[in-house]
Amino acid sequence: MASPSLVWFRDDLRLADNPALHAAAERDEPLVAVFALDEESEGMRLLGGAARWWLHHSLHSLREGLRERGVALVLRRGPAGRVIEELAHEVGAGAVYWNRRYGAPARAVDAGLKSSLRAAGMEVSSFAASLLREPWTVTTGSGTHYSVFTPFWRACLSLPAPRSPLTEPRTLAGTTAVPASDALDDWALLPTAPDWAGGLRETWEPGEPAARRRLQEFLAEDLPSYDRARDEPAAGATSLLSPRLRWGELSPFTVWHEAVGVDGAGGFLSELGWREFAWHTLFHSPDLATKNLRPEFDAFPWPPLDPAHLDAWQHGETGVPLVDAGMRELWHTGYMHNRVRMVTASFLIKNLLIDWRLGEEWFWDTLVDADEANNPFNWQWVAGSGADAAPYFRVFNPELQAKKFDPQNLYVSRWAGDAPTEPIVDLAATRKAALAAYDEVKRAPRPPARG
């Protein structure tokens, strides 16, 4: 009697270059595909609103892709360890496959599940699918992890080339008796009261087919000008692949091998490297979203929170045109140009003197591409408290940034043409206050490093 293969989809919502799915297809037994919405396992971070919207539509796309190949996508909600173990026994699985995750809570779930399923006599295998270099495979000469990007990326590039992407399985065989599944709509991942996702619908089409199209458009139309124009928010030269990579609609191996032969691709590939470095850092510092990576910043004298300042920043009403444009783009589209992300983050931290963790939480809730590594990693980089961080005394001047990168005012006019024009703070004075606060950090006794 056939013993089905169980494929557990996570942040890998694709059919092409999916090693877990490929292994199940190679096993040549009926296949059960499952996605578990885990909002209960210890330490698991709940998805933000924009991420939930994307997940709904990406799961819909994956379900259709599997259905076309004769396989149903089973949806179950609950602690993933329990859900997957119960389903494996329910279908009499002979093998269970998934692609690896790198956050500490997810790794704990996976390790416990792997142990219990193997004890029950099932074959269990996990695979590298979401990173070009798994965090433990890149070490310094002394065997430690990296804390500076340039030597990290140099070490990555010195290793054998990333593996070639796997082709999509030609055939898949579903089971005759499909297990019970939740209805996707019952998960209520989409906003309804109010429905604030109109701008997201205008901007994005989630799912693997759209991700493949966007990759080809970028390679043909935008990559040749990427290095020259990527810092100009009105230029449209960025890849827009970050949510595709976050949800695994594209694998980094596919992106790498498609881009590596294109003239001028080095700058873009280094951005893939920065993504790798963020996950490398999270793997070795699991509390990246809540604790300063550089513990001396624990002494930073954050003043009492001004809720009005935080609210003005969140809603693009600071009176600083580039900041307001970025925050309004974020609210409307679930996305913000990377240069503007740095400017808006710097303004919150260094001009408003608001803790970076509050900004990270807002981005977590409003970005479609927010993941547990890149989001806090980049906030700590701007704050000066993270790995290879920008010096704290580097305060992005939003007026100079606008003159340099939006000289014709195209981006600001599009997103903040009706924004307030009187800044809520004095940029020069608040910069001085930030530097004075940084002096207190430098004078504080230095605690031992974390990680």
Automatic annotation (TrEMBL):
Residues 3-132 form the Photolyase/cryptochrome alpha/beta domain. InterPro entries: Crypto/Photolyase_FAD-like_sf, Crypto/Photolyase_N_sf, Cryptochr/Photolyase_FAD-bd, Cryptochrome/DNA_photolyase_1, DNA_photolyase_1_CS_C, DNA_photolyase_N, Rossmann-like_a/b/a_fold. This is Deoxyribodipyrimidine photo-lyase. Belongs to the DNA photolyase family. Its cofactor is FAD. It comes from Microbacterium algeriense. It comes from the Bacteria. Keywords: Chromophore, FAD, Flavoprotein.
